[in-house]
Amino acid sequence: MLPVIEQAESAAGRTSAGASDGTSTPVRPGRRRSEESRLAILTAATELLGEVGYARLTVEGIAARAGTGKQTVYRWWPGKADVLLEAVTAHARQHIALPDTGDHAADLRTFLAATFAAATPPTTDALRALMAEAQIDPAFGDRFRETLLHPRREALGTLVDRARTAGLLAPQLTTATAVDLAFGALWYRLLGTRDPLDDDLAELLTRTLLLPSATSSGSADGA
Amino acid sequence: MLPVIEQAESAAGRTSAGASDGTSTPVRPGRRRSEESRLAILTAATELLGEVGYARLTVEGIAARAGTGKQTVYRWWPGKADVLLEAVTAHARQHIALPDTGDHAADLRTFLAATFAAATPPTTDALRALMAEAQIDPAFGDRFRETLLHPRREALGTLVDRARTAGLLAPQLTTATAVDLAFGALWYRLLGTRDPLDDDLAELLTRTLLLPSATSSGSADGA
Amino acid sequence: MLPVIEQAESAAGRTSAGASDGTSTPVRPGRRRSEESRLAILTAATELLGEVGYARLTVEGIAARAGTGKQTVYRWWPGKADVLLEAVTAHARQHIALPDTGDHAADLRTFLAATFAAATPPTTDALRALMAEAQIDPAFGDRFRETLLHPRREALGTLVDRARTAGLLAPQLTTATAVDLAFGALWYRLLGTRDPLDDDLAELLTRTLLLPSATSSGSADGA
Amino acid sequence: MLPVIEQAESAAGRTSAGASDGTSTPVRPGRRRSEESRLAILTAATELLGEVGYARLTVEGIAARAGTGKQTVYRWWPGKADVLLEAVTAHARQHIALPDTGDHAADLRTFLAATFAAATPPTTDALRALMAEAQIDPAFGDRFRETLLHPRREALGTLVDRARTAGLLAPQLTTATAVDLAFGALWYRLLGTRDPLDDDLAELLTRTLLLPSATSSGSADGA
DNA sequence: GCCTAACCGAGACGGTACGTCACGTCTTTGG
DNA sequence: CCAAAGACGTGACGTACCGTCTCGGTTAGGC
């Protein structure tokens, strides 16, 4: 249950830090980036999203709420969507672990339940906005898939693959299609029906993706 | 395979109509709505969406391309998203029938395949844009769900329910969750992975939602 | 004190009525112009001007208040300014007579006082609006000068000329410049200072334009 | 002939200024107002007024001609009329001095002639438009009177008052009414007859407002 | 202990599109 | 043929944000 997925620190890059060899430590002169401003901007964006919605969320508003200049936002992020993306990925990195107990069905159920549990009101608004922006701005769409969707797919794919190797996956499914079904249900409820994402859905998905034998006695049904 | 789902003719309504009985012939005075302009706007919106993308699609641009005034767009639609919504629903109404051959598994597979076939490049752009806008503008979201998502859910729900009544549905699923899984896969591929929606996916979904016995001999595998 | 100045009946012309001889009664076919609509429009325009001001006075508003269609306004007048112009000229024609008592100084004073008296709140708003529109729309400016300013100049010019012939006019003035001074004061107060136009101003103008001898003993002071 | 009337520098004010004492040097942060844009807008407005007339003069057109954004116009002026007002007042401030030679009649004549000389084609169009707008938009009317009409009245009033104190003013006139007559003639010719404003009119007004003795020998008729 | 570089707040800049308003015209139905 | 009703193409409005470009004023090395 340990290895948390590591992701890029920030969309902006331009990191000073060098690699292991001592050759490159450019350590530029000048004032350092204000961590205070960075956090204030992430917080302001998240709060404002909840208050006014994504459509009326503006970079000007974020900067004003954060008490910074507009340029400070644009210096580090391409736009409002990337600010939210950083806020969300930071949150996801903290809360969703990749379990490995040996019980592949239970691991899958646990991971899905944790994923769904992380998709609660402060975050769901951001997720819906990000997926929307990804459709509208292709360049952001690439960053969004790269930073958020792919890592999540890989995490779930790892678990599904373990089950498949153990012969527990339903025969008509590949790892990729199983992941499609699971995240499909997640996103469809987020975007389309807005029904809640609860533990029942995690259980239902686990039983649908795996063979009956993998789940019937192994965990839920018992005896 | 007959009953095509009927939906609202237009966002505007206000038809003069009058049934066979002589009671209602309101026939207002004044110039009639220009059908020519209406079609020109729908066409222009669809074309421009393909050419410049949703972000750079503007009401001004639609009106200019259609050779109409901006006000004529705003008179009949709340914004660019609703124009696209009308264009898409008209398309969906024409192309997706609700089959009823008695073979519930085959009907389901046919319906899904037809649904996926309708989601091809001219239309996919619009669908992705509409789902995006639905996240961003809550009021449009309601209209979108009402006019597009719900009717599609009901259509698929009807087929799934027939299978469920015949005892073919996988036991852990309800009609609603089965529909969630099918449309979840559809939308997730549209929005997230952008993988193609092909007949294989229709087959895979049918086999995953229904019991093995319903599909193994009934249609694909055959005796 | 009799001869009221005759002016054009309407800016639109196209009158059917024939002269006294029976030869010309062209009596065109079709529905006749509605006198009811015409008066309703003139009344509505005057009322609305007082209520919302000239800037927010619109042809649509006039038609709506008058209970007519917009086209009925445009059929008979070029725009809102001409509607007001007709309303004002009708009013002026009724109330300002051209006196001729033999006492030229008194006639002048009487005429100016009557002119000023006619320029009271319901009418001043219209006059100011018309003069404004005349500056902005050159074509209307021509009609405005033709229909309103010139006839008024001619009326006053007649009186001044009588005084000049009698040797009462101040020697440095011509008829034209005397009229300029009188109407200049009138319009400047209307447009610029918005001070009241009272009998004192009529008296002051009379004494300034005429020789002292013409007014000191001749009429007011009296011997 | 020295003291030119000082008026507000700009509609915007908000000068950093600071008197000689070190207490007040507010020097706000942020980018400074672009003097280049300000002049380009004033020039563009004046040029376009001459080319297309006030009715077809638009803020959009001014901004386009000036090479600025529309918002930059609206940031500093309420509308097109105020742009013209600033252009005109700057012009008036430069060209009309207040003479004081001791010969009150000559001073009056000189001032009027200078005023009339400043009212030539580039400027007359603007003056007529401004007076028109002042009738149509009451709020602008207040600004117009405040910044243009009142200062001009005060300047002329000062000269007239000197003449009155010296006993040269025609007895029936007050300072205010004398000013009314002079500016009345000016504006009436501008707006109504559009006759030229020449030196003859300056002479005529001087002789009409002052006693014959003040002008007969003093300047024109002369020895 | 400067110098130089980079970041910070603030806010004006040139733009684009918004959604609204009114214009003056055109097209209906009906007197 | 006129009148009401009302949709049409048009064009400007004033606003909101966009993303960029100055400003004066901090912070930090490096020399």
UniProtKB/TrEMBL annotation, chains A, B, C, D:
Residues 7-35 are annotated as: Disordered. The keyword DNA-binding applies. InterPro entries: Homeodomain-like_sf, HTH-type_TetR-like_transc_reg, HTH_TetR, Tet_transcr_reg_TetR-rel_C_sf, TetR_C. Residues 58-77 bind DNA. GO terms for molecular function: DNA-binding transcription factor activity; transcription cis-regulatory region binding. Coiled coil: none annotated. Keywords: DNA-binding, Transcription, Transcription regulation. Residues 17-26 have a biased composition (Polar residues). Residues 35-95 form the HTH tetR-type domain. The keyword Transcription regulation applies. It holds the Pfam family TetR_N. This is TetR family transcriptional regulator. It comes from Kitasatospora cheerisanensis KCTC 2395.
